[in-house]
Amino acid sequence: MKSLRVNLPDRTYDIEIGSNILGNIPAFINDKGYSNRFYVIDNNVYDLHREKLEEIIAGDGFLVIGTGEENKTFSNLEKILSSMVEAGLDRKSVLVAVGGGVTGDICGLAAALFMRGISAVQVPTTLLSQVDSSVGGKTAINLSGIKNIVGAFYQPDKVFIDIDFLKTLEKKEIMSGIGEIAKYGFIVDEDYIDYLQNNLERIEKLEDEYLLEIIFKSVDFKAQIVEKDEKESSIRKILNFGHTVGHGIELMKNVDITHGEAVAAGMILEGIIAFNRGNISKEYLQEIISLCRRIYLIPDFTEYEIDIIIENTKHDKKNVGDSINMVLPVSRGAVESFDGVTIDEIKECFRSWSNDYK
């Protein structure tokens, strides 16, 4: 088992990473002395791990919700909050989120809103949520076709990362997580790029040693960044490499793509923009493409589809006014945030992908 601590001015909490650690949750909850406990579990996880979860819940209240971005809505948020009221939760209660990023995001927001804030515990069950969304306190729902536009920064009391959940995931979901994992190498540590390139097959095979290593390293990278900039006013923005164009693709209704695959696609296309600007070498661009295309191969989009993707990027929360903000690589293992990325630059990166790199 591995663990690390996130140290913030208003909240310090631990992240526990290991195999078969679900049994540690009741002891933690009892030690904290919460007045009441309520669990929200995504339906896939509940179906696959029902017996184990019901042992942990042990008679406490719980609600099973759907998975997928389409479930991050006001109506589902209201459903969770109403269930919390019915369960008799008060200000000293705890909400435990068990599931992927959708469950963690919407439950974190529910905990932030209920009685102006109660305790939350995150139990992420996908590789993507384990290395990214469960750490750092970002909570949100979608609105009007815009991803994560309604939310709050709200840190949990603890995060339990049990790698046994990963053994029941489809390969597509594992590769989705690897998309976010690869991002950490590109933004903060070029040695991590080498580690992933050398061990990607072992990670895909879910070998425990390599899973524990990449999850711990990824979470540690993110925790260090969050400690320096909890509410994304400066350095935390670098975590958005691949996300501006990636979110634009992810919001396309006719594209079957996971969040991590969208990030991988975004890193390729934003890498092309960086190369076209003279920020990085052709050799490094090819390295980004080589790793990310193992996660997701970008299709050829029509001009109409590219226009929709660009329109989607305009809703990105980093943008101010009409200026499109984008995190771009500047050297191997380093990125910077740039304002004023143009629509023509984004269109050109799609053309370059189809004509020169695919």
TrEMBL record:
Instruction: Name the cofactor(s) required for activity, per the record.
Output: NAD(+); Zn(2+); Co(2+)
The catalytic activity, as recorded, is:
7-phospho-2-dehydro-3-deoxy-D-arabino-heptonate = 3-dehydroquinate + phosphate
Give me the Gene Ontology terms describing cellular component.
cytoplasm
Q: Which ranges carry the 3-dehydroquinate synthase N-terminal domain?
A: 64-175
Xref: SUPFAM superfamilies: Dehydroquinate synthase-like
Q: Which residues bind NAD(+)?
A: G101, V102, T103, G104, D105, T125, T126, K138, K147, F165, L166, K167, T168
Keyword rRNA processing belongs to the record:
no
Can you supply a Gene Ontology BP term from the record?
A: chorismate biosynthetic process
- Report any Pfam family annotated for this entry: DHQ_synthase
| GO MF annotation list | 3-dehydroquinate synthase activity; metal ion binding; nucleotide binding
Asked if the record carries the keyword Metal-binding, the reply is yes
NCBIfam families from the UniProt entry: aroB
Tell me what this protein is called: 3-dehydroquinate synthase
Source species of the chain:
Dethiosulfatibacter aminovorans DSM 17477
